[in-house]
Write a structure and sequence with these properties.
Pathway: Carbohydrate degradation; pentose phosphate pathway; D-ribulose 5-phosphate from D-glucose 6-phosphate (oxidative stage): step 1/3. Keywords: Carbohydrate metabolism, Cytoplasm, Glucose metabolism, NADP, Oxidoreductase. Its main location: cytoplasm. Belongs to the glucose-6-phosphate dehydrogenase family. With 469 residues, this protein is of the alpha/beta class. The protein folds into two domains: 154 residues, 3-Layer(aba) Sandwich (Rossmann fold); 287 residues, Dihydrodipicolinate Reductase, domain 2 (2-Layer Sandwich). The protein has 14 helices and 14 strands. A nine-stranded mixed beta sheet has the order 13-12-11-10-6-9-8-7-14, sandwiched between helices. The protein has a three-stranded parallel beta sheet with strand order 3-4-5, with helices on one face. Strand 4, helix 6 and strand 5 form a beta-alpha-beta unit. Helix 5 runs parallel beside helix 6 and helix 8 packs across helix 9. The longest helix has 26 residues. The radius of gyration is 24 Å and the shape is globular. The chain starts with a helix and ends in a 15-residue tail after the last helix.
Length: 469
Amino acid sequence: KKIYPTLWWLFRDNLLPSDTKFIGYARSKLSVAELKEKCRQYMKVQEDQVEKFEEFWSVNFYVAGSYDSRRDFELLNQEISKFEVGRAANRLFYLALPPSVFESVTVHIRNTCMGEKGWNRIIVEKPFGRDAQSSNVLSVHLAKLFTEDQLYRIDHYLGKEMVQNLMTIRFGNQIFSPTWNRAHVASVLITFKEPFGTQGRGGYFDDFGIIRDVMQNHLLQILSLVAMEKPATCHPDDIRNEKVKVLKSIRELAIEDVVLGQYVGDPNGADEDSRMGYLDDPTVPKGSVTPTYALAVLKINNERWDGVPFILRCGKALNERKAEVRIQYHDVPGDIFDGKPKRNELVIRVQPGEALYVKMMTKSPGITFDMEETELDLTYGHRYKDVALPDAYERLILDVFCGSQMHFVRSDELSEAWRIFTPLLHYIERERPEPIKYVYGSRGPKDADRKCDENNFKYYGSYKWHQKH
């Protein structure tokens, strides 16, 4: 669904070195023709691209082998070596694997498949462990085999246009920079919402839960970009150093800091999925208390953010699909308008429809002296109509080819992220607190709104977003 389409788009747009070859390796006995059929529906091939599409598959190869046999990896190495005829040849390994086979595969790659004519780089897909300890074991294991500059821990959220734009918005605009602190900001809300349930993948999801799936990685990554200090340069390590400093200033989460929810079916739902609750999914264990919704309040103990709540909120089976950052400013001091002004907000919408807008108060047009909320609006679909935004994976895989680690997760960053969340995750597993039920298609548990309110985030529900046509 993700990797092959991404490779095809990069190939189609001539963004990869011209003599790149693609070799798949897995246990399944597959031919390239079968692989092509499996991928076809995700590839978005236009009529005028059919020839190029065939050309892409002509440089694709496939080797079937087990994950724990050195001999099979030696055969893979022989297959790769056939194509390395020039003086230089680079190898990029993309590991999209279940955690159970990870260790043996990486050992075999290190011992039998490293190229000798150029660089070797390894892309690692999440999950990067289940808690601080397992993540640390994995990091130590990888550190014995590869250097940190060979490792690319991919979090596709870091490839999204508006996430990458955070740096520019913050450090390239004098209008925002001076107000980006506790004196002006009341609270920050980072949201990820999905309008569908587990869709039959409940068994897989139940193993991880929404906190591991979305909050501990995607949302925390966004938080660190929103909150970090200005790096010395745009060099990847300078940026990542600042992100680590922010994470080090956050204390570990406790159960009092979170609201956990689990969706139940909506009896009046329009389709089968919406009428099914999480526990109705046959792949989910009976009586599971795995949260499908979580809201957590984090505090950053440093000079810039002392006392400003950072609220992370994510959930499945909610009322809309959305990922965004809301920076809410304090109420206007010395209010002369009898409490009518609503708070200003800077909203950075990651998906769907990338946008950046500032909510502000203006006098409503006409003879009366009333006020209303409106926005200064940069919606990418209007401002950049004819610009095709690349998929997050395209951007990130291209970064690996170029050797840029700016949008990848460093090992110390990972261990800090797990330090913050591990005590909470262990508490949930040990004590099995009952998640609050919320109906499929709703805004989530009411307690979550209360928690936002307690943490200085005001939700008015009066603002209307005007869709332009």
